[in-house]
UniProtKB/TrEMBL annotation:
It comes from Aliikangiella marina. The keyword Zinc does not apply. This is Histidine biosynthesis bifunctional protein HisIE. It is an enzyme of class 3 (hydrolase). GO terms for biological process: L-histidine biosynthetic process. GO terms for molecular function: ATP binding; phosphoribosyl-AMP cyclohydrolase activity; phosphoribosyl-ATP diphosphatase activity. The lineage of its organism: Bacteria, Pseudomonadati, Pseudomonadota, Gammaproteobacteria, Oceanospirillales. It comes from the Bacteria. Keywords: Amino-acid biosynthesis, ATP-binding, Histidine biosynthesis, Hydrolase, Multifunctional enzyme, Nucleotide-binding. Pfam families: His_biosynth (PF00977), PRA-CH (PF01502), PRA-PH (PF01503). Residues 244-316 form the Phosphoribosyl-AMP cyclohydrolase domain.
Length: 411
């Protein structure tokens, strides 16, 4: 997986050489996030917080409101870590403080430990100190409390001089959790190499300078040599249901990534095929991913209308939208803007007093309920009215889920 990086300093995206000298600066951070997010999970790094010169916390929260991202840089306490998870961060990147006791209060699924290295040794405190511990000796201990490592050879960072392949290979083979490589990614061959090794790559300087293009980087991860037509699974980004399976070649994948539309190779017509040009059931491509062997692609799309040519939601009969709290949230959000007296939900949104009355009533009834069916009924009532009240106050189910996730710890 490619992980484009947005390194923030004074509200702008920057690239530093050797973590010190600023060589690039851009202020279009939201445009960068939109551009980068189709190719992989974006990493947002707060350099100001890492260096102890303030922080970009408010900006990061705004970016997380647009796209879920991994977040790192200057996260030195539990409150800050949980604050970012609540805001929608997929994972938190922690460096020197990864051995602190407070870190164990966060689910390991949400944690990436950043291991910076000078040669074989662990570099800490923003590369100021070089510890006596070797990185390979650290890995078995640290891997017990995280789901991923971010490994950076600091002597390669920002120099565009290639990867320290020997040490990276040792780290990847030693680590029981996935490893993301950073620092020195310079050529498409670098990407091909770490992909075949089973690692991810966090990429910055080479794409900001134009030395590499993200679309080319993505295509490099796909093994078109093994199969010129690669199966492409298409998933509804809102429901996570599988909509269809099509085929991609290098040309169709390039067009899909650059136009952000569901575009494939038609085996019957032997030509590029943009989904929905005839039917109107088009697909907006939100993100793309490649499996570990490089021979299957995953598209996550926003589907307009139905995906199947039989005018069904999905080409797979078992894949139906179904019901969950996300779908209920969508309906209630629609009701929030309505003024119809026929809609009870609309009436609820118009009256804070009515919502409060119903929540108190249903909470009491749930407390008193004993029978299975009665408890189920009253719990559903309470959840419905609580969600309606939260939506009326600007809090949706995703925000509630993120709040619960920030408290979750199954370690």
């Amino acid at each position: 997986m490619l992980i484009p990086s947005i390194d923030l300093m004074n509200g702008k995206a920057v690239q530093l050489k050797q973590g010190k000298n600023k060589v690039l600066e851009r202020d279009d951070v939201f445009e960068l996030l939109e551009e980068f997010s189709i190719y992989g999970e974006v990493a947002i790094i707060d350099l100001d917080a890492a260096l102890g010169h303030g922080n970009n916390k408010d900006l990061i929260k705004q970016l997380l409101n647009v796209r879920p991202c991994r977040v790192g840089g200057g996260i030195r306490d539990l409150d800050t870590a949980k604050e970012y998870i609540k805001a929608g961060a997929t994972k938190i990147i922690i460096g020197t403080n990864c051995r602190q006791d407070w870190v164990k209060n966060i689910s390991k699924e949400s944690l990436i430990f950043a291991i910076d290295a000078k040669g074989d040794y662990w570099s800490t405190q923003g590369w100021k100190n070089t510890e006596g511990e070797k990185v390979l000796d650290l890995i078995p201990e640290l891997a017990q409390n995280c789901s991923e490592f971010l490994y950076t050879q600091v002597e390669k960072e920002g120099l565009l001089q290639g990867l320290d392949r020997e040490r990276i290979e040792q780290v990847v083979k030693t680590s029981p959790v996935p490893v993301t490589v950073a620092g020195g990614i310079t050529t498409l061959d670098d990407i091909d190499w770490f992909t075949k090794l089973g690692a991810n790559g966090q990429i910055g300087m080479s794409i900001y300078t134009g030395k590499l293009k993200l679309v080319d980087c993505f295509l490099t991860q796909v093994d078109f040599v093994k199969a010129p037509l690669v199966p492409t699974i298409v998933q509804d980004v809102d429901t996570n249901k599988v909509l269809m399976m099509a085929y991609s070649n290098a040309d169709s994948l390039t067009k899909a990534l650059t136009t952000r539309k569901g575009t494939y190779w038609s085996r019957s017509r032997k030509e590029l095929w943009e989904k929905g040009l005839t039917s109107g059931n088009q697909q907006e491509l939100i993100s793309a991913d490649v499996d570990c062997d490089g021979d299957t692609i995953l598209f996550r799309v926003k589907q307009l209308g139905n995906a199947c040519h039989f005018d069904r939601y999905s080409c797979f009969a078992s894949q139906v939208k179904g019901f969950d709290l996300n779908r209920l949230t969508s309906l209630l959000t629609k009701r929030k803007t309505e003024s119809s007296e026929a809609s009870y939900s609309a009436k609820l949104f118009q009256s804070a007093e009515l919502r409060a009355e119903k929540i108190r009533e249903e909470a009491e009834e749930l407390i008193e309920a004993q029978d299975y069916d009665e408890v189920r009924w009253e719990a559903a009532d309470l959840i419905f009215f609580a969600l309606t009240d939260a939506l009326a106050k600007g809090v949706d189910i995703k925000a509630i889920n993120d709040e619960l996730r920030s408290r979750f710890n199954d370690n």
